[in-house]
């Protein structure tokens, strides 16, 4: 048995997450059919329809990944009908924003009573994994299963935020994957005409079964049998059945007739469902203008405000597809007029959020989300979406505010990580580390890399290495983990280089200071030469008791570059500079401050654009009998020469 994931191409990311979950808990990759993954899809050179049909006939376990995009895709509806007719087991899994009241779903192949579960429902995901054990080799390592489930839910949460999706309210009594009901002792692949007491779903199933098996006579008998259960007074029910049959014949390429479908409007011009199906027929052939006309008629004849808003949304999306963005605004005005309370206002705001071409300003998006949360403060998905949006547009305090509004026990790994980032922005390091740890505990590998970077900055390299090692065990770990590993490996090399550079020239200074210490305890020289020179000029030396003083002058031309920086165009002129050493003698060591300044400046004046400098400490050793004296000015080792 194989697992066949029926999905819309726009929901491929959710499908990839499902594949990762399935393979993570033990399902072999070759047992999964997922056409958006080349390793699980259609073999090269195969005709996709024939290949899918062959896979479906082999009765795989079918996962219907249902979404608004799925229900709007003719190809997906064809695939659903074909799979639904022959499969023996299935699971309906809803993307977070899927509306179970979507008319295309409720009037499609699946029985809306056979509900599945939302993809981000942790309990139902757990039940789903357990339900696979009868047909697939699911690992018995419960720790591994829990870890894969947590990773899966974190991925789904991230996808919700990335796609701007907000979770809808859950439907009570959601059940795990279900076996199809056996009827009249026959399997779901056998053709039979339902009895008069059968419900509408039985007739739909058998009508589509006939189409799938290319037995149009069977489908015709099923249609006649259903119509026989209706009285002539059931005009709307008759029209709705005929529109259902004609639309599927049309979209499945089974001799459907668009003109015949459209003609039903002549007898049922006030039926919104028939208008909607006619609109779908026109959309199938790309005739958006006529589809819009029938969406408009469906709106006009519907009495339900929420349904009207949804249909107006379809109308606006069609305008967006056509590139007629100017037509969206009046539709939104019409939608606003239908708002009569918090429920319809929330429907309106959620619908407007789908119009990517209508509002692009992030501040407006934030305002809409803020309003939606004021209506329903419990919507965690929307709150995360809003917090993330605030962080993207620089509203860091608002981002932190909304992340903290999500109850701690309901925060997933991504939420904890982003909260940690918000805390760090405000230098709340203890809170940041705690948040990263909470995220890491939930398998969030981005948080692991963030936490590792904090440890690296603090110098705890071994701890950082352990965290990153653990992060690498997770499938599809965040790319920042690799970056953090590179950084971790670079740190010792960088520190070794810095260490070497900082030690450069240290040994001679250490030896010089030892040399100074050697001469501190010796007797002060009886006489000191009256002249010596440093790197700049010749100095006159004066010693009075223990006081030491030396001074001299030298000339230097102004720096042409300095003049240019100051905007001065004059020719450089010579300046006189004065050097002074003021200190005392300790043993045979002179120690004090050295000053260098322009002759007309106050001693010690400094300038960033001249060679004048602040005072520097000096040490000069007057070794007995030496004419070349060892010394240090600032941090530089220098030589001084005595003159006779």
How would you characterize the overall build of this protein?
The chain has 644 residues and is an alpha/beta fold. Helices cover 51% and strands 14% of the residues. The chain contains 26 helices and 13 strands. The strands form 2 sheets. It has an 8-stranded antiparallel β-barrel. A 5-stranded parallel sheet has the order 2-1-3-4-5, sandwiched between helices. A hairpin with a 6-residue loop joins β11 (613-621) and β12. α14 packs parallel to α16.
Instruction: Determine the mean pLDDT.
Output: 78
Beta strand count: 13
Which class of secondary structure composition applies to the elements?
alpha/beta
The stretches of 5 or more residues where confidence is low (pLDDT under 50) are: 162-189, 604-612
Q: What is the global morphology?
A: elongated
Most strands sheet: 8 strands, antiparallel, barrel
Beta-strand proportion: 5-15%
Helical fraction? 40-55%
Q: Spatial order of the strands in the main sheet?
A: 6-7-8-9-10-11-12-13
State Rg. 41 Å
CA(first)-CA(last) distance: 106 Å
Determine the number of helices (DSSP H or I, runs of at least 4 residues). Answer: 26
